[in-house]
Description:
Helicase, Ruva Protein, domain 3, Tetrahydropterin Synthase, Chain A, 17% strand, globular, alpha+beta, 3 domains, 3-stranded antiparallel sheet, single chain
Amino acid sequence: MSTLISAQMVNELRTATGAGLLDCKKALTEANGDVAAATMILRKKLGNKLDKLSSRATKEGLIESYIHVGGKVGVLIEVNCETDFVARNEAFKAFVKDLCLQIAAANPLYVTRDQVPEADLAKEREIAAASVAGKPPAVVQKIVDGKLENYFSTVCLLDQPFVKQNDKSIKDLLASQIAHIGENIQIRRFTRYQLGA
Length: 197
């Protein structure tokens, strides 16, 4: 017996994943109405789509600025996409503004993990290992790895939880934008200014 798939279920799944309506309906049908299973189906499908899109060139985009209320924090960001049509799209512009808000609020230092200097990582590993000295090496390694994950979620934009939706990371937000728009999007660089810092 198949479950009736309502428009509300499809819309909720679409909002949660950023996938197209037809893809959401197919996933819900395949999962027999189970939203969690449908989400997993879409994540697998979108993962393949994102891999294909990530190799395409991004030569268009936006440079956006944001000055926080009171004028004490400002952000300048460059986000690239494939076409000027998408760069002028309101959904893309809103996404870039959300990134500015994220940077102003959370103060990341890098876009991705691979931009973190090895010297900083070595220092963080040393601090983490020193805090658990005397434990078995396997335990120390797990604790150090956990502390590095926390460090990445503090200093790397893509690893941070989204300030408007803590259950979603910036990486998830980027993936849903790519899936929704259907083009490769790259957060190229940003600068955060703070008065007196």
